[in-house]
């Protein structure tokens, strides 16, 4: 076999090994986007008889509660018509005070409706959720339509006015870093007046209609973290592709040395998994990375050799030394992961 082709095959085997390792439990998208315990829910109010609802007014604000953000909705409307019910969507985190003469009950139910279309509008259509590309990397991005409070409506009461507090829906990045908090308000009645008091410069607000529902979204974005994620992803992708191309060129022109190949392969290991958009577990960093470093040292020796390579005690000791060196580098890499996130 031609020497160049042989070395290219060895490089391809190394890349294939990286690909196969990326399929193990040490590497996954859920490690980079740890949102498996997040239950996303729509906020809002749904009426059984929305035709009887008049002058619906909603005011949204963000309030602090012991260092945590809460989304507060002030809801006010008039009702005329036969007695009916409405459902407060989501899971309120504070007691709702409806006022004298208003009857309500508590029971958790899953609401029926075209909520799949609303989710689709949030994650697939242009300019709905600002960071929808990040949501699409998670395994449970969809918002659920649930309710815990049923409100009785009667023309005798007439005017309804109350406050509902919700915890925002978070989106987490590796290490529990919060990319954003979101609140999606949904109602099937006509909103006469909407008031937004959120003043944050890193907030995105948008109202639209879909499938007969009025939707008003609020995203409280951690813009600095988003910029950091995008920058690291871009750098990792560019570095991995450029180094791969450089190794191929060095093989083809037969100008590569052992240190050049070894340095390139060492850097390609962590950038490959970021290129594949996969997070790495702590055990992956401490165990798998050094093993891959050991393999990279062997591959680099094959790529830099002019003749057939024979492995003796000396070469094996050198490869083990590179394994230990990569382990030390991995430990140093782990320090900011533990203390910074």
Detail the poorly predicted runs: none
Terminal CA distance reads 48 Å
What oligomerization state is this entry in? single chain
Helices, by number, come to 8
Question: Please, how many domains?
Answer: 2
The geometry reads as elongated
> Radius of gyration, rounded?
28 Å
Biggest sheet statistics: 8 strands, mixed
- Structural category: alpha+beta
β-strand number: 14
Mean pLDDT: 88
Strand content: 25-35%
Q: How are helices and strands ordered from N to C?
A: HEHEEEEEHHEEEEEEEHHEHH
> What is the helix fraction of residues, given as a range?
25-40%
Quick overview of this protein structure:
This protein is α+β, with helices and mostly antiparallel strands and 341 residues long.
Give a verbal description of the structure.
The protein is α+β, with helices and mostly antiparallel strands. It has two domains: 3-26 and 226-339, no CATH class; 43-221, no CATH class. The protein has eight helices and 14 strands. The chain has helices at residues 3-21, 29-32, 115-123, 132-135, 223-253, 258-275, 282-304, 313-339; strands at 27-28, 43-47, 53-65, 68-79, 84-89, 104-110, 146-153, 159-166, 169-173, 177-187, 191-196, 203-210, 213-221, 279-280. The strands form three sheets. Strands 2, 5, 6, 7, 9, 10, 12 and 13 form an eight-stranded mixed β-sheet that branches. Strands 8-4-3-11 form a four-stranded mixed β-sheet, with no helix packed on it. A hairpin with a 2-residue loop joins β12 and β13. α1 (3-21) packs antiparallel against α7 (282-304) and α6 (258-275) packs antiparallel against α7. The longest helix has 31 residues, at 223-253.
């Amino acid at each position: 076999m031609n020497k160049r082709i042989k070395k290219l095959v060895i490089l391809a085997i190394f890349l294939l090994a990286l690909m196969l390792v990326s399929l193990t439990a040490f590497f996954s998208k859920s490690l980079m986007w740890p949102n498996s315990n997040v239950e996303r829910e729509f906020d809002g109010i749904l009426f059984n008889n929305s035709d009887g609802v008049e002058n619906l007014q909603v005011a949204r604000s963000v309030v602090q509660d012991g260092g945590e953000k809460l989304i507060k909705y002030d809801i006010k409307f008039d009702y005329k018509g036969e007695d009916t019910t409405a459902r407060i969507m989501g899971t309120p985190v504070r007691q709702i005070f409806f006022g004298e003469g208003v009857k309500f009950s508590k029971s958790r139910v899953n609401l029926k409706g075209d909520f799949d279309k609303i989710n689709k509008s949030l994650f697939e259509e242009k300019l709905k959720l600002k960071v929808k590309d990040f949501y699409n990397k998670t395994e449970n991005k969809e918002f659920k339509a649930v309710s815990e409070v049923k409100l009785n409506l009667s023309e005798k009461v007439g005017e309804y006015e109350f406050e509902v507090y919700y915890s925002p829906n978070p989106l987490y990045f590796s290490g529990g870093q919060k990319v954003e908090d979101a609140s999606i308000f949904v109602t099937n009645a006509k909103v006469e007046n909407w008031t937004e008091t959120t003043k944050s410069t890193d907030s995105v607000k948008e109202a639209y209609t879909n499938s007969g529902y009025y939707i008003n979204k609020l995203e409280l974005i951690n813009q600095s973290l988003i910029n950091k994620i995008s920058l690291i992803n871009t750098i990792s992708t560019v570095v991995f592709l450029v180094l791969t191309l450089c190794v191929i060129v060095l093989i083809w022109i037969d100008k590569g040395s052992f240190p050049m190949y070894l340095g390139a392969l060492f850097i390609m290991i962590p950038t490959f998994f970021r290129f594949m958009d996969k997070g790495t577990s702590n055990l992956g960093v401490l165990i798998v990375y050094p093993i891959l470093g050991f393999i990279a040292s062997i591959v680099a020796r094959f790529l830099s050799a002019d003749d057939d390579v024979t492995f003796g005690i000396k070469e094996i000791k050198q490869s083990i030394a590179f394994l230990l060196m990569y382990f030390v580098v991995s430990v140093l890499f782990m320090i900011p992961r533990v203390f910074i996130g």
